[in-house]
Amino acid sequence: AGHELITHKNCTTGTIGKSVLLPISYRLNQQFASYTIQWETSDWTILYYRVTNSTTDPQGSPTWENGEVTVFPKYKDRVQFFRLNGSLVLWDLQLNDTASYQVILTTAENITEKQISVTITETTISSGRCIPKPSGLIIEEADPNSFSK
Description:
By secondary structure, this protein is mostly beta strands. It has a single domain, classed as Immunoglobulin-like. The protein has no helices and eleven strands. The protein has strands at residues 3-7, 11-15, 20-22, 24-28, 35-40, 45-56, 62-71, 79-81, 88-90, 99-106, 111-121. A six-stranded mixed β-sheet has the order 2-11-10-5-6-7, with no helix packed on it. The protein is elongated.
């Protein structure tokens, strides 16, 4: 296949007023004239990144890119986007930022979509465990003993 999209967390939690990282990375198994990365929720598009030129290392990870990032008005001044790996940071979190966030990588060959579920709380959750969404769409099953207290 022409590309690979990896989410480094299925779900994460954040605290009101703080920030949260949505960590991803991607590999291109061949050179594409252009490709796009889009972050969105079911209700809003957060940003759109169109790459018009790039170089990759032997593993296909981008080492240099030329492209344009468009951040949509609702998220202006609230996001930081890392071009070379596609990760997103949301700042100044609000309770209504609790959502499933989709990242979509589109090349000439195919479209790949992944999701990270984000739960925003009023106070920091120290357990490090994700709270599954009520819909149960994305639940990270993990051994509770694997988390260090």
